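Box 3.1 A note on notation
Throughout this textbook, protein chains are presented in two layers. The first layer is the amino acid sequence; the second is a token string describing backbone geometry. Keep the layers aligned when reading.
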Amino acid sequence: DDGLVSDSRAGIYVWNSSKDSNQFYNCDVYNNTIYNSQQAVLSFSETSERKNFRYFNNIFIGADSLIRGDKGNDTFLANDWWSIERKFNADSMNDFNAWISKYNIEQLNDKIVGLNVLPPFKNAGDTTFTDVSKIMNFDSYKIISSSPVTQSGIDLQNLFKIDIGKEDFNGKAINKNYSGACTNK
């Protein structure tokens, strides 16, 4: 819910105040857990033209509508989408599979790689974390290992030559097929 303090009131706000996509390009957003219990997860400013924005292996949970604004030609692969109020709600659509088909997103080699499941978080929405020195022990958004989210991600190094590093949010060894910010090891 930290995005609530911005004008967009979203977890991620894509904005550059330019109508020139040559000034805002080549952005990869991957392995994040974005949780906004009151507003949208993603908000796109109407003045922010962009190109080659890609979203991989993220967990997006929002209050109702998950996206505000025009997602343009951005790429979305292996993300988990969940609307707290409606299970799924994006671009005025409540059917996840129909949304995928209409916008040709969350598909790789003609296979759906995105999810629409509520991850079983430990203490989601109950965050009092204020001391960065304790980040290694922050576990409020860890996911129970039996969740499909734990094996739904795509291998970004193999597919796109993206080096995702060796450690997750909590300093644990990376699982290349995991979605979200922290593994459950």
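The mean pLDDT is 87. The first helix runs from residue 96 to 103.
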